[in-house]
Amino acid sequence: MVHAPTSNIAIMKKSAYGTPLLLQNGSTQAFEKVDPPSELFIQQTVFECPDLLPFSDNDESFNPCLAICTELRTPAGPLDILMVTPDGELCNVEAKLWRNPQARR
Predict the structure, then answer these.
(1) Is 75 within a domain?
(2) Which of 45, 65, 92, 103 has its CA 20 to 30 A from that of 24?
(3) Is 17 within the bounds of a domain?
(4) DSSP result, the chain
């Protein structure tokens, strides 16, 4: 028999429609459904905490990437977030939700 540690553990049923549970110090609590975040929320969060993006998974030279500004106006339209790499290269980050028809997949 395997016993789970007493720390916080989130368990999800195998079904996509299961209810995630939090096991904490012997008690169980179901997570409540919340509305998904907006693109603006994602944009602001990434701007404030750019290390949330897994840049090093693709190219270590992007770490740490620093956020410079949001909504930079360009002839092609505004950039959601403009960042700069340690080498001085520019990086554009676009925040798109999966349900946005402008999102490219």
Answers:
(1) yes
(2) 45
(3) yes
(4) -----SS-EEE--SSTTPPPEEEETTEEEEPPP-PPPPHHHHHHHHHH-GGGS-HHHH-GGGPSPEEEEEEE--TT--EEEEEE-TTS-EEEE----TT-TT---
